[in-house]
């Protein structure tokens, strides 16, 4: 067996120390050959040393550009948030005509992380064509197809996965949210069978969410019981306590009460290109993003982490979490222009070319609205507001990224209500500190009077009128959120008052909001 084969075999069985030692021997054998550097880089990355791995893989690519080297380099660069370099490496890898399914899939995954869902279709298709029995590759193609509106293709891929693996929880959940189910056409029986046979808590979580979604679609109140069981178990696994989020809200309020801090000095970056669409999740942020990106002068950049990353990097805090109390407190010492510059540099790699303005629709940017107002004084901010009860219910019933700290509150009804109350209080503070900077847009009013509210939205964003904004459902751009199916239909009131289906179970939340003085109408 050659040294290269030994190193690859060691990587395959997880013996990274042996793989590294063998790769070093390969380098000593011939320092001009790329393979040793590449394998040493991959072994180094597998031990968590991404920063040390990148120069090694780059050294391989310099000595002999191969699609495999460049695809793996792109993957590592994404992990380091070096998005622009990752995009270049991924596209160069694709141009070199990869010869294996894994490299195609890696390119597709990188492009997906960059928000280029359309670009990811071809490499995912090639991966599936090369290895049709690999269900992970099929899932990635199905997801990209769903994001880009290829619903029939997505459905066919998910069903192929389930034919091969009837208990595949990811595919079950994806099928459930792909379209609205009906009493005559649903997967309830299949899902109940899969739930009974689920082997792992994570599988049961996704299948229960899928089952609850389909049951709610057909008007079956049994949906609530499945959600309650799934969420209770998942909250325990996360060890979440609302105090974690309360500390973040407290820190934001403290920082912006310090009027003499560096964050309150300086003029920020004057670029007016960004339009931030913020709010609690599942309140219409994707809808408004689609409306705005239907405008001739606006394109959607998706849900960017650019602002959280800019603040985190400049704050210099050592924690591994992007947002925490320490990071927010440290942000008080940052020059706002530096935040604006860092944000625009990060966003640049995700921003499609060809239009003057772009939307960033990360809902959680409501936590950073003050930073945005100071760092980008000419950027526009739109905050979606939805009935508190519908907001709580919609957050509770949707499975977000299951390990994301942003959404840890959503697995408990009372935690979600408390989170909504702090969100609402924070939005009130932003209005007092930056009057008129944030357009508070009511989801219910938008549904009830589409043109009037759309014109109000367009005017706030400093745009000329474009009638295409009223036909947002015809927008062919990709959508990578749970709202993908809804925003491809004309505006409707189906989501208004949905909480009342479970009014009895949600009564404690309604009563708590009333006690807190939070209006429910």
Automatic annotation (TrEMBL):
Q: Which organism is it from?
A: Alteraurantiacibacter aestuarii
Q: Which Pfam families match?
A: Sulfotransfer_3, TPR_16, TPR_19
Q: Which PANTHER family match?
A: PROTEIN-TYROSINE SULFOTRANSFERASE (PTHR12788:SF10), PROTEIN-TYROSINE SULFOTRANSFERASE 2 (PTHR12788)
InterPro entries referenced in this protein's UniProt entry, alphabetically: P-loop_NTPase (IPR027417), TPR-like_helical_dom_sf (IPR011990), TPR_rpt (IPR019734), TPST-like (IPR026634)
Full protein name:
Sulfotransferase
Task: Give GO terms: molecular function aspect only.
Answer: protein-tyrosine sulfotransferase activity
Q: Where are the TPR repeats?
A: 101-134
Q: Which domain of life is it from?
A: Bacteria
Give the PROSITE patterns listed for this entry. Answer: TPR
Q: Which UniProt keywords apply?
A: TPR repeat, Transferase
């Amino acid at each position: 067996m050659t040294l290269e084969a030994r190193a690859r075999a060691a990587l395959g069985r997880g013996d990274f120390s042996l793989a590294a030692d063998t790769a070093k021997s390969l380098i000593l054998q011939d320092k001009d050959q790329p393979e040793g550097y590449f394998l040493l880089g991959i072994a180094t990355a597998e031990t968590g040393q991404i920063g040390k791995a990148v120069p090694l893989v780059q050294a391989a690519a310099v000595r002999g550009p191969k699609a495999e080297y460049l695809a793996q380099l792109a993957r590592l660069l994404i992990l380091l948030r070096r998005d622009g370099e990752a995009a270049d490496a991924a596209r160069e890898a694709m141009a070199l005509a990869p010869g294996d399914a894994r490299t195609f899939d890696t390119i597709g995954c990188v492009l997906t992380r960059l928000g280029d869902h359309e670009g990811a279709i071809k490499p995912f298709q090639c991966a599936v064509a090369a290895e049709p029995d690999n269900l992970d590759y099929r899932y990635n193609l199905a997801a990209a197809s769903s994001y880009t509106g290829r619903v029939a293709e997505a459905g066919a891929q998910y069903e192929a996965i389930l034919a091969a693996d009837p208990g595949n929880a990811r595919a079950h959940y994806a099928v459930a949210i792909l379209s609205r189910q009906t009493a005559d056409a649903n997967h309830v029986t299949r899902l109940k069978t899969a739930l009974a046979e689920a082997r792992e808590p994570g599988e049961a979580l996704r299948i229960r969410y899928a089952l609850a979604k389909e049951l709610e679609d057909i008007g079956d109140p049994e949906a609530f019981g499945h959600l309650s069981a799934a969420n209770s178990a998942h909250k325990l696994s996360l060890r979440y306590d609302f105090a974690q989020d309360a500390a973040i809200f407290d820190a934001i309020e403290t920082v912006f009460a310090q009027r003499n801090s560096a964050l309150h000095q300086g003029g920020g970056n004057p670029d007016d290109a960004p339009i931030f669409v913020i709010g609690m999740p599942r309140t219409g942020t994707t809808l408004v993003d689609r409306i705005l990106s239907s405008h001739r002068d606006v394109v959607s950049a998706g849900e960017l982490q650019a602002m959280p990353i800019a603040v985190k990097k400049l704050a210099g805090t050592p924690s591994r979490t992007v947002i925490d109390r320490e990071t927010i407190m440290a942000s008080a010492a940052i020059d706002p222009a530096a935040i604006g510059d860092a944000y625009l540099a990060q966003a640049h790699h995700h921003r499609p070319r060809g239009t003057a303005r772009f939307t960033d629709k990360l809902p959680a940017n409501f936590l950073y609205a003050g930073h945005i107002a100071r760092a980008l004084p000419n950027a526009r901010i739109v905050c979606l507001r939805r009935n508190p009860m519908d907001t709580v219910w919609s957050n509770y019933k949707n499975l977000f990224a299951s390990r994301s700290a942003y959404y840890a509150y959503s697995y408990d009804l009372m935690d979600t209500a408390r989170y909504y109350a702090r969100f609402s209080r924070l939005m009130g503070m932003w209005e007092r500190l930056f009057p008129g900077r944030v357009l508070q847009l009511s989801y219910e009013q938008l549904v009830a009077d589409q043109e009037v509210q759309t014109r109000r939205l367009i005017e706030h964003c400093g745009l000329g009128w474009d009638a295409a904004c009223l036909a947002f459902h015809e927008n062919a751009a990709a959508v990578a959120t749970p709202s993908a199916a809804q925003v491809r239909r004309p505006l409707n009131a189906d989501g208004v008052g949905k909480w009342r289906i479970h009014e009895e179970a949600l009564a404690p939340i309604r009563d708590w909001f009333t006690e807190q003085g939070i209006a429910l109408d």
